[in-house]
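Hi there. Long-time user, first ticket. I'm pasting a complex I've been working with (about 221 residues overall). I'd like to know whether the download I got is complete or cut off, because the file seemed smaller than I expected. Thanks.
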Amino acid sequence: DADVTQTPRNRITKTGKRIMLECSQTKGHDRMYWYRQDPGLGLRLIYYSFDVKDINKGEISDGYSVSRQAQAKFSLSLESAIPNQTALYFCASGEGSTDTQYFGPGTRLTVL
Amino acid sequence: QKEVEQDPGPLSVPEGAIVSLNCTYSNSAFQYFMWYRQYSRKGPELLMYTYSSGNKEDGRFTAQVDKSSKYISLFIRDSQPSDSATYLCAMKDDYKLSFGAGTTVTVRA
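Hi, the file is complete. Here it is re-exported in full:
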């Protein structure tokens, strides 16, 4: 079984809709992350959490919110989706001083 | 200016060739340097990480860090078609991991 899972894997939605992407990890890591990946821009950090009570904004948090429901679960919400949020979204969990991160398989989100 | 610059390629090489990938960076606070490999429609997976300047080998892969020049490299020897993927460099300071845009590599059989 995969260590970091994401649901859904693909989602098509319309402008203005609320969307939630979910992430679970079985690695027992305290740290969890949400990234988006766009062609030519690489991975950009949206939000990160070092433990259940610690949530931090990344470089592109506008238009997004997160919830850390448990050590193993970290969800990303788009309150009112817009077309430029069309991207590949990755969740990751991390450990140690090097912050080695383990990524999920990604969610491909299309906002029409 | 981005903190981490990486040529997106694409790079196409024949099987058996040496693949050379590199990144430059501007943030002197970066302490850890990593390379991730991402196959199509998959999440990135950690390939190698280094802490200090110098070389680190793992099988056919060699990671090189030159902190004085703010330059890191990844070399893949005897490349195989299974090495075809996007390779992302990543660097960490005290707070976060910063990624390059990724270089897409195709190894032709």
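A couple of notes from our side: The longest strand of chain B covers residues 85-92. Chain B touches chain A through 21 residues (CB under 8 Å).
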